[in-house]
Amino acid sequence: MPHTDITFASLAPALPEIYLTLMICVVLMVDVFAGPKRRGLSATFTQFTLLLGAALTAFISHVDQRTVLFDGLYVADELAWVLKLAGFLFVAFALLYSRTYLERRGILKGEYFVLALTALLGVFVLASANSLLTVYIGVELLALSVYAMVAFDRDNGIAAESAMKYFVLGAIASGTLLYGMSMIYGMTGTLSLDQLAATLHGTPNLGVVLGLVFVVVAVAFKLGAVPFHMWLPDVYHGAPTSVTLFIGTAPKLAYFALAFRLLGQGLQGVATDWGRMLAALAVLTLIVGNLVALAQTNIKRLLAYSTIANVGFIVLGFVTGTPGGYSASLYYTLVYVLTALGSFGVVILCSRKGFEADQLDDYKGLYKRDPLLAFIMMVLMFSTAGVPPFVGFWAKLRIMQELWVTGHTWLVLLAAGVSVIGAFYYLRMVKLMYFDAPVDQPGTDRQTGVRMALGFNAAAVVILGLLPSPLLDLCARLIR
Amino acid sequence: MNFGLLSLLIWLPIVAGIVILFMGSERIAAVRWVALIASLATFVASLPLITGFDSGTFALQFAEKLPWIPAFKSYYALGVDGIAMPLIVLTTLITVPVIVAAWTVIEMRPAQYFAAFLIMEGLMIGVFSATDALLFYFFWEAMLIPMFLIIGIWGGPRRVYATIKFFLYTFLGSVFMLAALIYMYVKAGDYSIASFQSLPLTLVEQRWIFFAFLLAFAVKVPMWPVHTWLPDAHVEAPTGGSVILAAIMLKMGGYGFLRFSLPITPDASRELDMLMIILSLVAVVYIGFVALVQQDMKKLIAYSSIAHMGFVTLGAFITFQILNNSGSITGAVLGMQGAMVQMISHGLVSGALFLCVGVMYDRVHSREISAYGGVINRMPKFAVFMVLFALANTGLPATSGFVGEFLVILASFKANFWYAFLAATSLVLGAAYTLWLVKRVIFGPVANDHVAHMDDLNGREFAILFVLAIGVLGLGLWPQPLTGVMETSLHHLVDQVMIHKVPL
Fold first, then answer.
1. How much is the pLDDT for A318?
2. How far apart are CA A469 and CA B68, in angstroms?
3. B52 to chain A nearest CA, in Å?
4. What pLDDT does B1 receive?
5. Nearest residue, CB atoms, B144 vs list A387, A434, A468
6. pLDDT (tens digit, 9 = 90+) per residue, B311-369?
7. Which of A345, B152, B287, B326 would staple A435 via disulfide (CB 3.0–4.6 Å)?
8. What is the mean pLDDT of residues B3-22?
């Protein structure tokens, strides 16, 4: 392994992680000294941290060529850079949306923000992982923080239950991942993804394939692909909405990175093997996710199954086993996170203390009560359904394009067919908001700042839909 | 001659629509005028398309091309030929009466209503003028959103069912078309429709692509048996929605067949032309009978639309048999001309009929035929228009309805006597259901109190029906300007259709 002296200059590519680690400590301290009376302080400080982090990442630590650090454990490339920048921004938005929600329920505590930041650190580690070990550290750092966040509202029985479920199932998945990694290590003698990529190609021996099965299962679990999706609806439903929102954002980027670094880079040599496994998972995920979503009456569960359905598309991008396919998946992930962020933002703004706004019927006639929120939600729903002129259309188009390039005719037809099924429940949401008479509900949140952020979020969905080129080109450049 | 005229036509109404959304329903008086001025301005702006059109060439005119998505070699590329141009003018023309007809009638969220129609106008013009397949699809799908809202918000009692059915039906058709478009992109390397048309495809590929297109366009036309969304959508939609649906959206299916199916998959079209002819004749004959028994005026006109659109698909797909039997290119062009004239004429006539039903509905709030009778006694001016449009619907000579049907029947004789015979039954059936409708609604003694309190047309209503009546009579008496404009483009289309992409 190459040994290099560690200097400040050589650490520069890892600036986002270093900065974030320091700031986590600072936020902890701020919280301690602010005391219980000034709870808002750590929230504000965290926002500031995230925005400053985004600025630092954007302007100082831009990486345009691949640099390997820390004895090959860590890689800094432009993909990681974009994922980190997106992570900072998405989490900043997510926390902005959830602040009032937390305050009203008395869980606006410093720990919440510390956990969110450590989870984000996990995301960063995954984004830059270049060794099986780093991958595992990233997965655990992220997962443990999120388990705690789900259980954060500790007097809430459902939240505690779903945290428990998540923890137990997540632990099994982690074990599976570790088991699979150990087998691959045993067969190849290396943990480095670079070296794995160099050694593994052609027909692998049975041990590697067996290890691969376990790794694929773990990745599928983290992404929420059927049949390893059971945790997802329960967690989405049970967790406080702010946490659901959080889970829907940065961690999705991380699990894309997990799949890409592990399968698309380290194990690219055996892509045909895991490609077939993923194809089966994708088919199941698309069908089950979309069909089960039809039967939901709770919006958080509905969005959970919609997530599963969307994960099906992300997995389809990986099925192709080509850089084009991975970049289509990356594009899909970014677009999906952008849209999910907005959708959960609307759910949060519609809720009140003692009223979670989590039933579909709570959205009846939202148009009359709050035209702006209803309009934003409509844009987001049509985008997720893949209807132009919104950005979700391009995401589906990219995936279908790559499937045609690699000749997966049946998967294209399946993707087209399930889009129609999916359209139904997104339309139903629009129907509730626009066509039904309003029911007596508490008013929606009227905070100008948050609403502006949400409007910005929806505007991004429209603008990237009308002019998709910049983001498409970026994703194509990141994974070649 | 390129100053972005088509872009202007697309974006002017869309921008006006967005402005109206921001103005909101509180400033309704201003909103109405903005909407009217925007739609009139768009119509006036579309007139240079007619005056500046060179009918001597099939090349795309008023072309614009800007890079849109370089990664896919997809362009913001617009342009019209003799097939698209008349449809665009029809769109700009029909939108004006739709706006005027809604003037005071829409009470709930009127600003949004006007905005939806203006935005839709821009998107529909985009569909007809896009020369890049991706841009075409972009407009094609985006158009579903305003229509979905129009039916769902301002529609009748079963509006939710109708609008979701409408959306899902059309969406189902289109996604498979999208899959086909992407497939051709992967083969051709770019998204321009022209390169799809010259793309060599094997017969198997052509069959698949043909069916993908068929799914999208047959739903839109709509052809039997995927027509069932139409009566529901029409019945539940507000007047303006029905008018736009019948007058313009249905034409997109026919336009799609002429622009995509025939030139891109000529061999598959040749092979499967019997299927298309049979489906068209079923639409003409069977749906004609179905229309006969309707109790609801809008439903009756909706079924009559399906029957009339059968002529469009018939005219487009008898080409092969004409060429086969007589080798007569003029004969083939005749059929396509018939199809095109029928589309324009049906746009005017069905739009006008739905407006007539709207006029009556605004007074009595019923669409049931049995709720009316003797309307002529109370509304003589209205009765003149209604009878005129009804006669145009039956294909009476001197109205535009005659020209299209006559051309298609004439062309079918060159293909097969029985096609012509069956198509001609429409003249009888159409006359039967339309005139029977007129007899029950317009003539006779005043049927009930509601009818007794109907007031005749006001100035607004008179104006819009008058304009459409001029159009219907004008095209019927002197169709040459219309047929002349499209002749060269249709000749070119027949040339494209005669190409064998697959070596024999």
1. 93
2. 7
3. 30
4. 43
5. A387
6. 899 988 988 888 888 878 888 888 888 899 999 999 999 999 999 998 888 888 888 88
7. B152
8. 89
| B229 vs A5, higher pLDDT | B229
- Is B3 strand, coil or helix? coil
* Residue A479 falls in which region: left (phi positive, over 0), alpha (psi -120 to 50) or beta: beta
Dist CA A448 CA A221 (whole Å): 38
Q: For A59-110, write each residue's pLDDT tens digit.
A: 887 777 888 888 888 888 889 999 999 999 999 999 998 888 888 888 888 8
Closest Cα partner for B137 from B207, B217, B201? Answer: B217
| A474 in reach of chain B (CB within 8 A) | no
The size of the A-B interface in CB pairs under 8 A is 81
Q: Nearest C-alpha of chain A: how many angstroms from B348?
A: 29
Determine which of A113-122, A171-180, A355-364 has the lowest per-residue pLDDT on average.
A355-364
Using a CB–CB cutoff of 8 Å, tell me whether B144 touches chain A: yes
The per-residue pLDDT for range B98-127, each reduced to its tens digit, is: 998 888 877 888 888 999 999 999 999 999
Task: Please indicate if any CB of chain B lies within 8 Å of the CB of A435.
Answer: yes
Start-to-end CA distance of chain A, whole Å, equals: 26
DSSP letter (8 states) at residue A192: B
pLDDT tens by residue, A169-211: 999 999 999 999 999 999 888 898 888 888 887 777 888 889 9
Q: Which residue of B has its CA nearest to A422?
A: B168
Kindly identify which residue of chain A lies nearest to residue B72, measuring between CA atoms: A469
Partners of B74 in beta bridges: B69
> Which residue from A388, A435, A467 is facing B160, i.e. has the nearest CB?
A435
Contacts of B71 in chain A (CB under 8 A): 469, 472-473, 476
Neighbours of B167 (CB within 10 A): 25
* Rounded Cα distance, A299 and A303, in Å: 6
How distant is the alpha carbon of residue B306 from its chain centre? 11
A423 and chain B in contact, CB less than 8 A = yes
**Cβ <8 Å between A434 and B175:** no
Confidence class of residue B182 from pLDDT cuts 50, 70 and 90?
Answer: very high
The pair of three-digit structure tokens given for residue A100, joined into one six-digit string: 């009032």
**Interchain contact, A387 vs B176, CB within 8 Å:** no
Q: Which two tokens stand for residue B399?
A: 């109205």
Q: Is B168 within 8 Å of A404 when comparing Cβ atoms? A: no
Chain A residues with CB under 8 Å of B185 CB are 401
B405-433 CB burial, b ≥16 within 10 A, e <16: bbbbbebbbbbeeebbebbbebbebbbeb
Q: Does residue A1 have a pLDDT over 50?
A: no
Separation in Å, CA of A129 to nearest CA in chain B: 29
Dist. CA A309–CA A422, nearest whole Å: 8
- To test the contact with chain A by mutation, choose from B132, B137, B145, B153 the residue with the greatest count of A C-beta atoms within 10 A, namely B145
Q: Residue B401: enclosing H or E segment and its boundaries?
A: helix B400-415
For chain B, the distance separating the N- and C-terminal CA atoms, rounded to the nearest angstrom, is 42
Contact B137 A435 (CB under 8 A): no
Integer Cα distance of A304 and A229 in angstroms: 10
In this predicted complex, what is the ipTM? 0.90
The reply to whether B428 touches chain A by the CB within 8 Å rule is no
Rounded-to-integer distance, Cα B228 and Cα A303, Å: 31
Q: Which two tokens stand for residue B216?
A: 């999208």
Report the pLDDT value the prediction gives residue B2, as an integer from 0 to 100: 54
CB contact under 8 A, A430 and B148: yes
Q: pLDDT band for position B295 (50/70/90)? A: confident
Instruction: Select the more confidently predicted residue: A355 or B286.
Output: B286
- Beta-carbon contacts of residue A76 (< 8 Å; ≥ 6 apart): A13, A14, A63, A66, A67, A68, A69, A128
